[in-house]
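User: Hey, my collaborator sent me this sequence without any context and asked if I could get a structure. I don't really work with proteins. Can you help?
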Amino acid sequence: LLRGESQWPDRTIVVHSQRVEQPQKWRQTTVMTQRWRLVGENELYDMAVDAGQRNNIADRFPEIVAKLKQEYDRWWQDISRRFDEVCRISIGSENENPVRLTCHDWHDSAAAYQDEIRKGRAFNGYWAVSIERPGRYEFRLCRWPEETDLPIRSAAPGDTVIAAVKARLRIGYLESGPTPAPVIFPDGKESPPPDPTVVSQSFRVSEQDKTVEIAEADKAAVFTLDLPEGPARLQTWLIDADGTERGAYFVYVQYLQEG
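Assistant: No problem. I've predicted the 3D structure and written it out in structure-token form, which is a compact way to encode the shape of the chain:
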């Protein structure tokens, strides 16, 4: 290919930008070949003569539109089989310890942008995590990334100070116990199936829910918990004196030792 001695076969490529919890068909989607671009379902451009995509010619080439839609449907059918899978963030792994969690990876929340963090936006979500080994863990809840060296109740010039006086951490997980699967986490959101290798076991849902005070100079609210191995759901709160709540935008999780 580099020397121009081979022919690259024409192919159809699909790109999309979802940025939502559950992917939506045709959301911000383009279907591309070497010559054609189908933008969404109704805009067709001939890149050979219209690289700037100024002239929508979908009406003139309905057969091309139909063909590209067919290619898209085939692609969507393939990828949508895995939409129900949860991609968990590992904590406690020997390969990365500690782990930094950020609000960008929250579930049940709109995407987080840097200016919203700087303004102290009151929003929240949860992390789907996988506890890689049982033991004692330290959780450091921060408003700012640690490299800024800023206290929770402080801000850089031009940013918004928040008046957080308390921090809360809640983590729900599965343990062996008397209640059979399926299971529901405490707030009814997520119900992961049991590991097929231990399907004969029964499980119960457990959680830890703790609160600590935040002092004026605290750069992090620190929690230490003993946790079992397995899938879990983690959520945090920074709570102002007036009751305003927001999630901790940055959380540092470190495996300390066996429990």
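In plain terms: The chain is about 10% helix and 35% strand. You can pass these tokens on to your collaborator as they are.
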